[in-house]
Write a structure and sequence with these properties.
It is built from 16 helices and ten strands. It has 435 residues and is an alpha/beta fold. It folds into two domains: 204 residues, Glucose-6-phosphate isomerase like protein, domain 1 (Rossmann fold, 3-Layer(aba) Sandwich), CATH 3.40.50.10490; 163 residues, Rossmann fold. The strands form two sheets. It has a five-stranded mixed sheet, sandwiched between helices.
Length: 435
């Protein structure tokens, strides 16, 4: 049975004097802008202009991943070295879908150059049984390339066949890693040229780690393809995008994602990058916050319920758990009401109660519900938000696919580290320090 996805936005709208939800006049004022933005995105979709959608139909990427996976089957551990879009999506896949006995032990270790973390990594793995998946389109990402340089030296000291312990996921034609791969005969996987990092989870960037975890990557991709191709499903993303824009118009510029599933907590981290990097520019944007349901009902929710009204909440829930446990024979009168209830039922009831508590005090929230969590539904979930952020960006009038603020930080880091060609940036830094 195919996964069913629904989006309930009933609690987003102002229905009482104390409510800061979406007002009727806001809906009227934004209607033309919203319609124009949705039509613009739909036309670009029809014209095949979005690489993150189009690439999913290119079967050769999936085949390349499957071949690369077979070529490293001799190993037992895959260490993924990437950061941002080269890291977060596959982490989300692992937490959501990794099977009980995966083909590989998959470790993510790209998002910090902290030497303590590197020491702990090397203590935890057997180099003779390990492949390092180095992920960077340009090869210039400092966190990634610096660790590659060091790990290459470590492996060279351990074995004469160091190349077989590395697999680069990088640009097909250009960049530091491409040059290194060609020179040293290191195996590679291509990063599609039309897909940016934060949209790359369903390309070889995320798919090689996924298949190493035992995930059915063809079903994962097919779920995303079906979502993008379905007018009915795209409407769900359009509705979420519209509500985000309308709340933004009213001055509410934060959104809290609160998944009520431990399998989706890393997905919320992936969402943070997608939303922040795609929308936060030109003095505009909606700041994404990650929350953990129900854990944060006992911490952050105090603020969300009674603190400064500055955010909407977006819940994610799964209707049917793959496994569950029912309470019986309680024998404690004070909690006898739990008799016959399952843990998953308690979890989803906590989500519903949180939404109702917010509704009571006029705080907006919405909930995305999935009938189950599997490869198909996770693929759909990725595409839901990838399309939604493009709709919102069009409404805001920003480019969803660049990240100039990130690039500025990189250039300053290059200057501070003494990289040639960044002397002017170094002089600029000296002036900034004087201010």
């Amino acid at each position: 049975m195919k996964t069913q996805i629904s989006f309930n936005q009933n609690f987003l709208y102002a229905t009482a004097e104390n409510s800061v939800g979406i007002r009727k006049e806001t809906q009227t004022q934004t209607a033309e802008r919203v319609q124009h933005a949705i039509a613009a995105v739909e036309k670009k979709l029809a014209d095949h202009q979005y690489g993150f959608v189009e690439v999913l139909a290119e079967d050769h990427y999936l085949t390349a991943v499957e071949v690369a996976f077979e070529n490293i089957r001799w190993a037992k551990t895959l260490v993924v070295i990437g950061i941002g879009g080269s890291d977060l999506g596959a982490r989300a896949v692992q937490q959501a879908l990794e099977v009980e006995k995966p083909p590989f032990r998959v470790i993510f270790h790209g998002d910090s150059t902290d030497p303590v973390a590197i020491t702990r990594l090397l203590r935890s793995i057997n180099l003779d049984e390990t492949v390092f998946n180095i992920i960077s389109k340009s090869g210039e990402t400092v966190e990634t390339i610096s660790q590659y340089i060091y790990l290459k030296q470590v492996v060279q000291q351990s074995t004469g066949e160091w190349q077989k312990h590395f697999l680069f996921t990088t640009d097909e034609k250009n960049g530091i890693l491409r040059e290194e791969a060609d020179r040293e005969k290191v195996a590679t996987l291509p990063i599609p040229p039309t897909v940016g990092g934060r949209f790359s989870v369903l390309t070889p960037v995320g798919l090689l780690p996924a298949v190493a975890m035992g995930v059915d990557i063809r079903t994962l991709v097919r779920g995303a393809v079906e979502f993008a191709a379905s007018t009915e499903m795209r409407v769900l993303a359009q509705n979420f995008a519209t509500s985000q824009f309308q709340l933004y118009t009213q001055g509410m510029k934060l959104v809290v994602m609160a998944p009520y599933s431990v399998q989706l907590e890393e997905f919320a981290r992936w969402f943070r990058q997608l939303w922040a990097e795609s929308l936060g520019k030109d003095g505009k944007g909606i700041l994404p916050i990650q929350a953990r349901g129900p854990a944060d009902q006992h911490s952050q929710y105090q603020f969300y319920n009674q603190g400064t009204s500055m955010q909407s909440l977006f819940f994610i829930r799964i209707e049917h758990a793959a496994e569950d446990y029912t309470l019986s024979g309680i024998g404690v009168p004070a909690v006898q009401y739990l008799e016959g209830h399952s843990f998953h039922e308690i979890l989803n009831t906590e989500q519903e109660a949180s939404a109702l508590a917010l509704k009571k005090v006029g705080r907006p929230s919405a909930v995305l519900s999935m009938s189950k969590l599997d490869a198909d539904s996770l693929g759909k979930l990725f595409m839901f938000f990838e399309l939604a952020v493009v709709y919102v960006a069009e409404m805001l009038g920003v480019n969803a696919f660049d990240q100039p603020g990130v690039e500025e930080g990189k250039q300053m880091m290059y200057a501070l580290m003494g990289r040639a060609g960044f002397e002017a940036k170094r002089a600029e830094i000296e002036e900034l320090k004087k201010a």
